[in-house]
Amino acid sequence: MTPFTSFFTPIIEHPLFWLTTTLVIFQAAQWLYVKARAFPLLNPVFTSIVTLAVFVTITDTPYSTYFAANQLIHVLLGPATVALAAPLYKQLATLRATALPIVLALGVGAVTGIVSAVVLARVFSLSQATILSLAPKSITTPIAMGIAEQIGGSPTLTAALVITTGIVGAVCGLPLLRLVGIQDDATKGFAIGLAAHGIGTARALQASDQAGAFAGLAMGLNGVLTALLVPMALYWLGIG
Fold it and tell me: Are 60 and 177 in contact (CB under 8 A)?
C-alpha cells in the first residue's frame, strides 16, 4: 500500500466515493469536450475511462470495489437502454420510409463486423480463443459476453474488445462519416449504433435526437442478429 493510498483509505473506502468520483469526472470530461468544440479525441466517454483507470490504479483500488460502488449506474443502464425507444417512436415516419435500407444495412453491417474481425485475426495469426472473443465485438457488452462464452471465447477479453470498439467508434465515427459526405442524421446514427453499440449510441444522442434514435435501433437489432450469425459465420470460416 502506497503512502497516498494509506492517507486517503478512509475516504476511498466510503461507499459514495467512487460513485461521486465517476459522476464528477464524466461531467468534467463533458465540459472539456464542449469547450474544445467537440474535438474527437476528447470524447467524454474515452476521457472519463482513461482518467478513472489512472485514478483506480494510483489509489490501488480493486476493480471489484470500484464496480460495487457504482452499482446504481449499472442498474440504471437497463432503463436507459429501454428509454431509447422514446426518441425512436418520434421517428416512426422516417423509420417506415427507410425500412428496406435499414434491413439491408443491418445485414451487411452485422456480417462485415463479424467476418472482418475474424479474418484479420487469422491474418495476424492470433490464437483461436482470441478469434472467438473478437467475433462479437461490435455488439453491446452483455450480449457479446454471452456469445463469447457459448462459442468458447473469453468473456473478459470480449468485454475489453467491445469497450475498445465502442470508444473508437464514438471518437472516429461522426468525423469519418462527415469526411465521406454523409449528412443525414438517421444514416449517421444507424451506422454508429451498428458499429459501436452503446458507447456509439451515447455519442450519437449528443449529435441529435434522430441520430440517437437510429443508433439505438441499430444497436438492438445488431445484438439479436449477431447472436444468430456468429455461430454460422464461424462454421463457414472453419473456426470452432
Answer: no
- For residue range 79-98, what is the model confidence (pLDDT) as tens digits? 877 787 888 888 888 889 99
Distance, in Å, from the CA atom of 239 to the CA atom of 86, rounded to the nearest integer, reads: 40
Over the chain, what HEC string results?
CCHHHHHHHHHHCCCCHHHHHHHHHHHHHHHHHHHCCCCHHHCHHHHHHHHHHHHHHHCCCCHHHHHHHCHHHHHHHHHHHHCCHHHHHCCHHHHHHCHHHHHHHHHHHHHHHHHHHHHHHHHCCCCHHHHHHHCCCCCCHHHHHHHHHHHCCCHHHHHHHHHHHHHHHHHHHHHHHHHCCCCCHHHHHHHHHHHHHHHHHHHHHHHCHHHHHHHHHHHHHHHHHHHHHHHHHHHHCCCC
- 8 has pLDDT over 70: no
At 81 the pLDDT is: 74
Cα dist. 18→43, 86, 139 in Å?
21, 30, 27
Residues 6+ apart with CB under 8 A from 190: 102, 105, 214, 215, 217, 218
C-alpha cell at position 115: 467476418
Q: What does the block give as the cell for 59?
A: 489509489
